[in-house]
Write a structure and sequence with these properties.
The protein is α+β, with helices and mostly antiparallel strands. It contains one helix and two strands, in the order ββα.
Length: about 70
């Protein structure tokens, strides 16, 4: 599976760099940590932008039409 996340070190090993991920909204690389309440987003603003896109139906999940409904 391909992902934007890159494992650069284990969380338990403080000598290695932390896990860096790309924000799904703005594309900025940031540290993925449980201390960030907006994860996987980098900030509250990016999380709000994504929520707004869902609310305005910019994102859609395709579904095959059910023949019974027609």
């Amino acid at each position: 599976m391909t992902t934007d996340a890159t494992r650069q070190g284990d969380a338990g090993d403080s000598n290695k760099p932390p896990l860096m991920v790309r924000c799904p909204s703005c594309g900025t690389m940031h540290v993925y940590t449980t201390e960030n309440p907006y994860r996987p987003f980098c900030s509250k603003g990016c999380k709000a932008i994504d929520l707004g896109a869902w609310a305005s139906e910019e994102y859609r999940v395709q579904a095959k039409p059910d023949p019974v409904d027609e």
